[in-house]
Design goal:
The longest helix is centred in the last third of the chain and has 28 residues. 71% of the residues lie in helices and 0% in strands. By secondary structure, the protein is mainly alpha-helical. The chain is built from 18 helices and no strands. It starts with a helix and ends in a 7-residue tail after the last helix. Helix 6 crosses helix 11 and helix 14 packs antiparallel against helix 18.
């Protein structure tokens, strides 16, 4: 077996050389750091070092689950994720279908460039735009409301608007970029299906409903599975930039809590336990969504 394997490596040596940088990247930056997960089961002391720090087992998990913070963090994270899933996830699909219906290629490229542009802006820029438009003191929207005789609306500091604001930011920034995969899937649909539908008298809406959507359903399911796997990742940088003391009860999530406990407070073992819990939940969601997709007759990830 080793001889056959070596012959295969020699035969495809250039392909293996092409794969080698990606392989080293995942080994060095993804798998080797996984040893750090042991911190979740230790009471880490920088003076004792990684290996000599005392082993405490599941103590950090028990402390985390017993705190009221756990349920607040869980509620905030799930609600923000659900809002993104319900309102953000379908929009790239709809936008892709609408762009596909544009027949003038020049106009279509202009629209694509415009909707892609926000993706390349950092969350710092997006947060700055949000403050510039919606701040009570300097916000353009509130200044316009005051000019018209209305009271200013404290969108940035009102907990009632915080989740909606985050969802709107995500939609504005990423909806255009999310169309790339769906446009590629639509481009791969056999055009003879549309021609046959036209012969049968189907209009554009019926073609979309009976040809376009079923043809890209596999892509939609796979991306939905991946989305569910990242359900507890709600955008650390985005939330951290928009967070303030007034919206903290509805804005604090697992990522920001881990940052505060680990980086700011120096509780490395405890914050590692919180991060490990979040990752395990994400892994369970991926496997669960994959199995559900297969039971419904779709191709899963595995």
């Amino acid at each position: 077996m080793s001889t056959v394997l070596w012959q295969r490596v020699r035969r495809y040596k250039y392909i293996y050389l092409l794969v080698m940088p990606s392989f080293l990247y995942f080994v060095i930056f993804k798998y080797v750091p996984m040893w750090g997960l042991l911190l979740a089961f230790k009471d880490y002391n920088p003076f004792q070092g990684f290996w000599k720090s005392p082993w405490v087992g599941l103590e950090h998990f028990q402390v985390f689950f017993s705190k009221n913070d756990f349920w607040i963090l869980f509620r905030n994270t799930i609600m923000i994720s659900l809002l993104n899933l319900v309102f953000f996830f379908p929009l790239p699909i709809a936008l892709s279908i609408l762009l596909n219906e544009v027949r003038k290629e020049g106009f279509k490229r202009v629209i694509q460039s415009i909707v892609y542009l926000p993706h390349f802006m950092s969350w710092v820029v997006v947060a700055s735009f949000t403050v510039l438009f919606f701040s009570v003191d300097i916000g353009m929207i509130n200044k316009a409301l005051v000019t018209l005789g209305f009271e200013p609306v404290a969108i940035l500091t009102n907990p009632r608007y915080f989740w909606a604001m985050l969802t709107a930011q995500s939609i504005w920034k990423e909806v255009g970029w999310g169309t790339i995969i769906f446009l590629a899937a639509i481009a791969g649909i056999d055009q003879q299906l549309y021609e046959a539908a036209i012969v049968d008298g189907a209009g554009r809406w019926k073609q979309i409903w009976h040809i376009t959507l079923p043809s890209i359903s596999g892509t939609i399911v796979i991306l939905l599975i991946l989305r569910l796997g990242n359900m507890l990742d709600v955008g650390f940088e985005q939330i951290l930039l928009m967070l303030n003391s007034l919206v903290l009860p509805v804005g604090d999530v697992f990522d920001t809590y881990t940052y505060k406990q680990g980086i700011l407070s120096g509780q490395f073992s405890y914050s590692t336990a919180v991060g490990l819990f979040k990752s395990l939940i994400g892994l369970m969601l991926v496997f669960g969504a994959d199995r559900l997709a297969k039971r419904l007759g779709h191709d899963g990830l595995y």
